[in-house]
Each structure stands twice: as structure tokens, then as C-alpha cells.
Amino acid sequence: MLLILGCNTPNNPSQLVALGSLHFEGLIDREAIVYLPPNYDSNSIEGYPVIYAHDGQNLFNKATSNFNKEWRMDEVLDSLIGQKVISPAIVVGLYSTAERTIEYTPEKPFNLLNDSFKNYYQEVRFLDKNASPKSAAYLSLITKKLKPKIDSLYATNEYAYLFGSSMGGLISLYGLMEYPDIFSGAACISNHWPLTTHKNSNAFRKKYEKLITSKPKVFEGKKLYFDYGTETLDSMYQNHQLAIDSLFQSLSVKGLNYKSLKFDGAAHEENSWAKRVHQPLTFLLK
Fold first, then answer.
1. Are 195 and 121 in contact, with CB atoms under 8 Å apart?
2. What is the pLDDT of residues 165-195, one digit of tens each?
3. Are 48 and 155 in contact (CB under 8 A)?
4. 236-268 burial by CB neighbour count: b if 16+ within 10 A, else e?
5. By C-alpha distance, which of 108, 178, 173 is closest to 143?
6. CA distance 39 to 103
7. Tens digit of pLDDT for each residue in 99-128?
8. CATH topology of domain 15-285
């Protein structure tokens, strides 16, 4: 699909609104930023779908990003909306913290791992052999504090989605499974199935598969998007993603809208994700 940025200038352009600091017990305080679409109508009867995106500091502005790179998500959304490719939507970018890995590691599949893998991961990735995943608290922050706040401030509707890359993809899928009554779908970009960056193990993916197989009904009527590249860290992902694709195909989940894409030459970084972010946005919002 040809994406032409900057077309169809609206009467009222899109806005980026700083939400301020969010506090939740057991977690580090963090910022959030809200994208409001062009011609946003606070009195809209239909309301707007909302995407809750992890690593929000990297979405809209190089100045706030971790690596001086951004997804350019606001420009892409403006273009997709202007061309009427997608319906207008709100995006909430929730910043990550120094405990990103601990918060984004899905607790239930992690707890199924053997002690050797868990101990290794805690020392190498958590940098604390006594640390445990905080995914439950992180998802509670989104569902019990952030989402109610967004629903009270803006004209939202019943459609809410999770969106993230790498570890953010893992927690997006997990959040959909943990809160199927709240979220309508998830976009998992460059999903980090090996969990660790030091070895390409399938141990964690296998445990995730076990979790998926145990509760396929949570995916009924949902939208689920995956993708991966072929360079840098993404070069580890193809076999994992093909196994996940095969699993979902075998489950034949009623009403599941599923998409999985491969991007040759794409690396594990924001510039590569920015080039294809129109794909998951279109899938979720069309």
C-alpha cells in the first residue's frame, strides 16, 4: 500500500497531549502521551477506538525517545485518517521505565519455565536473581487506572487495543489474554519469543504456546497481528513466529482475525518499525 504522508490537511489538526505522571503501587511512576486525531470531536456519539501502546516515549518524538529514533506514528495516523484508510482513533503512549523488562515479561508462561532458565534470565535480564515479573501490576495500571482515566477524559468507544514491539509485543499478547473483556485485539511487532537476547531458545515460546492452547476462547472475535524482520535481533524470530502461526491455524478460533507478516531486510529498531507501522494500524482500525 502506498502511504502518502501529509495529505488532506484537516481543519483541526491532530494533537499530542501530555497526560502527566501516573502512579501505581509497586511500579515506577511514568509519563503518558495521548494522540487525538484530526478534527477530534469531544461530543462524538460514536466515540473513538483507543490503542494503548507500550514504549510511548518512542512513538511520536525523537527528543523523548530512547535511541533518537521514533515511529512517526502521529504522521502515519494523520495520513491514514486523511486518506480514509482507517477510522479516526486515539492512541495512548505509555512510557516504559528502568523496569521495562520486568514489567513486560508475561508472568504465567515465565513461571512455567524450569528453574535453570528462570535463574539465568533473572540474573542476565532482570539483573536481580530474586526479581519476579511485574506484568500483573503493569496490566493493572493500564486496565484499572489508565483506561478509566482515558475513558473519562475523551470520547472513547468499546474498542480498545494493545500495541507493542519486542517485549512490548509479548505483553500485548498477554494483556489480550488476561483481559479479553476489555481489549478487542493486539498488535505484536517483532515479538521477542526467545525472551533472552543471549541465546535463541524456544523454551519460553513453548510455554507461551501451552498457555495459548489452554484458553483459545479468549481470542474469539479478536484481531491479532504479528510481524517480524530478518536483520539484527529479528533474525532470531522466523521459526518462532511460524510455529505460533501454525498453532493458531490448528486452533481454528471462531471469529479470530489473524495476520502475520514477514519483512525482508527489516531490523529490530524504530526506523524499521516506522516504515511498516501503517500495516498494524490499518489492520486494527480499518
1. yes
2. 999 999 999 999 999 999 999 999 999 999 9
3. yes
4. bbeebbeebeeebeeeebeebebbbbebeebbb
5. 178
6. 35
7. 999 999 999 999 999 998 898 888 888 877
8. Rossmann fold (3.40.50)
Q: Cα separation of 64 and 79, whole Å?
A: 22
Amino acid identity, position 4: I
Let me know: does 33 contact 74? Beta carbons within 8 Å.
no
Other CB atoms within 10 A of residue 102 CB: 23
Strands 185-189 and 223-229, sheet pairing? parallel
At position 84, the amino acid (one-letter code) is K
- Residue 270 has a CB neighbour count (10 Å cut-off) of 22
The whole-angstrom separation of Cα 213 and Cα 140 is 24
Rounded CA-CA distance 92/57 in Å is: 11
